[in-house]
Amino acid sequence: MRRAHGRIPRRAIPLLLGLLALLAPHQLQAAWLSDSRELMGTRVSVELWSEDAAAGQRAIDEVMAEIQRLDEMMNPWNPASELARINREAARGAVVTSPEIIEVIERALFYSRLSQGAFDISFASVGQHYDYRAGTAPDDAAVARDRTNIDYRAILLDVDERSIAYRKPGLQVDLGGIAKGFAVDRGIALLRTHGIQSAVISAGGDSRILGDLGDRPRTIGIRHPRRQDEFVVLIPLADTAISTSGDYERFFMKDGVRFHHILDPGTGRSAQGVQSASVLAAHAIDSDALSTTVFVLGVAAGLELVNRLPGVDAIIIDGDGKLHYSADLLLNTTP
Known about the structure:
Among the domains are: 82-166, ApbE-like superfamily (T-fold); 212-335, ApbE-like domains (T-fold, Roll), CATH 3.10.520.10. Strands 1-2-6-7-10-13-14-15 form an 8-stranded antiparallel beta sheet. A 3-stranded antiparallel beta sheet has the order 3-5-4, covered by helices on one side. A two-stranded antiparallel sheet has the order 8-9. The protein is globular, with a radius of gyration of 24 Å. The chain is built from 10 helices and 15 strands. It is of the alpha+beta class. The chain starts with 12 loop residues before the first helix and ends with a helix.
């Protein structure tokens, strides 16, 4: 009997079914996946492309678990956190702490020196007295008393011993201006160990893009400081971190004055003259710290600093709503 053309031999069917079983999940489960959770005092989101949906979800879960671990370690308002313990004990003597906190504080002190104190994690010495939900601020006497404790030079870091001490009894540290960027970078590093090549992780105003959208860059919007659902700039980005610090994130109004969470270490009051500062850099720990730094420095000094840093760009919206670009961005956007 002649075999009909195109018919599969019976003995080959089990082999082909086995091959299809291996190939079908790979083909059918490839997808964009996303998740978001409330962590580090903000909404953290992860979006990625995975050839295997189950493996991609495991990667997302691992990133979220890592960011939650860092949150529990670095939240100064959680009495059980490592940072809260340091704030309680470091003025009495050196406190041995985790490698993660040492790394973050070492980088924070670098930017303090670079900016001559415009970035200072000891702003919490006064910042702890603000309550943005209740709409309360410390009076002038309290600010004058505690402002002397804002001094990054009084933070003694021993990297080899992995310890930290404070030279001023009233000094308090808050890593809110740099910790989210660090956490985003850690998340990207974890995704890479899972073989993920295209993703974005965001923690509030801090984002880092891994790869692109496959055939084009990812577009990130800079929010209008006074119109919640509008963007003032849309930027195509790939393999870049971007952070925005704005006076609209945590604030309250009192007697026509906007009290927001970005404090000028020199005054202990909300920094003035800028509505938002966005910084692009290779890593989110740097863009996070620099967006706060530029906001505090203001337009002229902030752009002067950014223009000295290779691979760093900035977009600033001043107090009147006018846009200002760093030199490289201005060059690339000029017709």
